[in-house]
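Example record

The entry below shows one chain as it appears in the dataset: sequence first, then structure tokens.
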Amino acid sequence: MLLPRTCARPEPTDPMRAGPNRHPHRHLHRHRRPSGSERGSASLEFITAGLILLVPLVYLVLAMAALQGGALAVEGAARQAARVYVQAPDEVTATARAERAVQFGLADYGIDAAGAEMTVDCQAGANGCLTRRSTVTVTVRIRVPLPLVPQVLSLRNGSSVPLEAVATQTVSRFWRAG
């Protein structure tokens, strides 16, 4: 018995009905399939490239945070030292109070005040720095170490960033000794 032509097998020229072995894009799929030795290599490459880019970025964030904290600490310490200096009753007390203000200001940010330098300059009047309307300038210098640098063979000094802040205050025109 002969079957009608409509029920016969599809023509091989039709790409969608070509059969299992006659896929029209078979040659494209052959190149996409990784061999057994390359399976999983994309994820390994992604992890490796991610670590290569992520580790320096994390270190950069840590270093910038340490430097920003140091900059805020030295600025606050200088400003507070200048304020307490101009409010002191005499120059000996003013210097002691200013040094203590620097120590507290740096300690608030977790910076060791042992390496800090403080200098006081003023436009001295006839009676010294603490005269009415004289200007007192306090300069504070520190070195902020970069994070995660070992303390081997004095490498710590070479891998620290010097920071300096200057603050100026004017002695009140109502100031009076003692």
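Notes for this example: The CA atoms of residues 137 and 159 lie 29 Å apart. The chain has a mean pLDDT of 82.
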